[in-house]
């Protein structure tokens, strides 16, 4: 969605206020009769600008209702009580392309770092100025290393701005690398800044325009928690994989629902080879991040500096860290194979 369309959809909220509204709907759902009041409070405590009232929240939610395409397959799990589950994350990432427009802002996933180990040196495979993403790239490297990818056909689903795709192509040397990403803005951004040999496609993880039996490895990092119907995604993974192909999956998940996640993967016909808890390494990376994000934020100017201060200091290093240390979320790795 273009900037003018987003501004019209969320008027009179600023883009930053709009992002926090979407966070309140996806990270911390606010059902019930007082949901709009709690959303307004969430936005007002996390973003600068004029105070937001419940009437404004209600008007924005009505416009989102009107813009959302109907889905005849009801959302599952936590998404069942959330209005317009299909569109919310797409809007969130479309917004970020305007709030965080810099070409170095290429990764959108949590980072991972082995507890007690020295920082990874991945600069050989990260473009100049992108060492700030050393931990995010380290997560991709650890997950991608669970299967030899050199000379293989790889599909990444939920590729964001393409930082992980570019890194895997440079370091792991697949024969082909295709991505499916719902946000058109993310795809346009990735096409502009990532290696030209990557085939970035706009698409739906739950219904992919990818041929049957055509892929050796599906990479899915910190994306499936956004899908209203992850069972449909895992069925799609089984459809596109060749025999012996693998799903390389790492994502944050609701601690009490991890068993449902692995059951859904197995139900799709995939055999789980590895299932590991990565949460300690995610927390370790978050605790090390200020050493590299601090100087980066300090180098920004004007209003954009405040945006990055909030993004890194509050949204990532405070809110995300609390989600893991409180054990609300667990970050889980699953490697599964198609027989």
Summarize the structure.
This is Class I SAM-dependent methyltransferase. It comes from Jatrophihabitans lederbergiae. With 339 residues, this protein is of the alpha/beta class.
Account of the protein in words:
With 339 residues, the protein is an alpha/beta fold. The chain folds into two domains: 3-99, no CATH class; 123-283 and 317-338, Vaccinia Virus protein VP39 (Rossmann fold, 3-Layer(aba) Sandwich), CATH 3.40.50.150. The chain is built from 13 helices and seven strands. A seven-stranded mixed sheet has the order 3-2-1-4-5-7-6, sandwiched between helices. The mean pLDDT is 92.
Strand content: 15-25%
Query: What ranges have pLDDT less than 50 throughout 5 or more consecutive residues?
Result: none
Radius of gyration: 19 Å
**What's the level 1 CATH class of the largest domain?**
Alpha Beta
Q: DSSP helix count? A: 13
Amount of helix: 40-55%
Count the E strands: 7
| CATH superfamily label of the largest domain | Vaccinia Virus protein VP39
Tell me the strand order in the biggest sheet: 3-2-1-4-5-7-6
Distance between the termini: 40 Å
Return the string of H and E elements. HHHHHHEHEHEEHEHEHHHE
Task: Let me know the average pLDDT.
Answer: 92
- Counting helices, strands and paired strands, the structural category is alpha/beta
Largest sheet: 7 strands, mixed
Q: Label the CATH architecture of the largest domain.
A: 3-Layer(aba) Sandwich
**Which term fits the overall shape?**
globular
GO molecular function, one term: methyltransferase activity
Protein name: Class I SAM-dependent methyltransferase
Organism: Jatrophihabitans lederbergiae
InterPro entries: Erg6_SMT_methyltransf, Methyltransf_11, SAM-dependent_MTases_sf
């Amino acid at each position: 969605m273009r900037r003018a369309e987003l501004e019209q959809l969320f008027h009179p909220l600023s883009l930053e206020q709009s992002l926090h509204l979407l966070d309140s709907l996806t990270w911390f759902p606010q059902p019930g009769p007082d949901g709009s009041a709690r959303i307004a409070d969430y936005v007002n405590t996390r973003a600068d600008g004029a105070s937001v009232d419940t009437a404004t929240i209600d008007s924005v939610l009505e416009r989102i209702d009107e813009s959302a395409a109907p889905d005849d397959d009801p959302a599952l799990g936590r998404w069942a009580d959330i209005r317009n589950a299909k569109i919310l994350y797409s809007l969130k990432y479309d917004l970020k392309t305007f709030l965080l427009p810099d070409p170095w802002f290429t990764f959108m996933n949590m980072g991972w770092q082995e507890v007690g180990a020295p920082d990874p040196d991945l600069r050989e495979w990260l473009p100049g100025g992108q060492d700030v993403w050393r931990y995010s790239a380290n997560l991709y490297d650890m997950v991608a290393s669970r299967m030899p990818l050199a000379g293989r056909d790889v599909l990444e689903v939920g590729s964001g701005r393409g930082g992980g795709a570019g890194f895997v192509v440079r370091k792991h040397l697949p024969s082909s690398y295709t991505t499916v990403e719902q946000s058109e803005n993310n795809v346009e951004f990735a096409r502009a800044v990532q290696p030209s040999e990557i085939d970035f496609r706009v698409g739906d993880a739950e219904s992919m325009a990818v041929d049957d039996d055509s892929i050796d490895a599906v990479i899915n990092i910190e994306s499936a928690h956004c899908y209203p119907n992850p069972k449909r995604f895992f069925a799609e993974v089984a459809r596109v994989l060749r025999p012996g192909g693998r799903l390389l999956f790492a994502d944050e998940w609701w601690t009490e629902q991890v068993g449902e996640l692995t059951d859904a993967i197995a139900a799709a016909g995939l055999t789980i080879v590895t299932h590991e808890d990565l949460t300690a390494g995610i927390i370790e990376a978050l605790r090390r991040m200020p050493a590299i994000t601090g100087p980066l934020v300090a180098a920004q100017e004007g209003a954009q500096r405040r945006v990055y201060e909030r993004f890194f200091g509050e949204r990532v290093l405070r809110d995300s860290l609390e989600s893991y240390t409180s054990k609300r979320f667990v970050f889980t790795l699953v490697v599964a194979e198609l027989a």
